[in-house]
């Protein structure tokens, strides 16, 4: 691993870990891999794999690791930074409020998109039914003009 960059607040306890292999499907799989790493403070860590609710909860390729204390987070940073997994170099940095807020914002946007797609589908069905009704009514009109 790499040395952990100093962080202004020694109270930081959460890491952002990106560029995870897309073969990682859930927290359990990620946790199993972490168990193989020597000295990784897994007992002091909570893992949250980011998933996309609009795409059947498929992983987004990043995770947040929250530790019981700053020292454990520093140790984990040193172990993970620069490490490769399935030919992907992990991107490790201190999690910030903006990275958390961005994740929430993306989830909200994806939920809005999914809702709008469902509404559009419903409107298309209604339009199709309406078009069919118009066609049925038009067939009832005689072709010869009424005088």
Short characterization:
With 147 residues, the chain is of the alpha+beta class. 44% of the residues lie in helices and 21% in strands. It has a four-stranded antiparallel β-sheet, with helices on both faces. A two-stranded antiparallel ribbon has the order 4-5.
Account of the 3D structure:
- The protein has 147 residues and is of the alpha+beta class.
- It has helices spanning 27-35, 70-80, 97-140, and strands at residues 14-18, 45-52, 58-67, 84-85, 88-89, 91-94.
- The chain is rod-shaped.
Task: Indicate the topology.
Blueprint (H helix, E strand, L loop, with lengths): L13 E5 L8 H9 L9 E8 L5 E10 L2 H11 L3 E2 L2 E2 L1 E4 L2 H44 L7
What features would you highlight for this structure?
147 residues, alpha+beta, two-stranded antiparallel ribbon
Distance between the termini: 91 Å
Class by helix and strand content?
Answer: alpha+beta
Counting H and I runs of at least 4 residues, what is the number of helices? 3
Please compute the radius of gyration using only Cα atoms. Answer: 26 Å
Mean pLDDT: 83
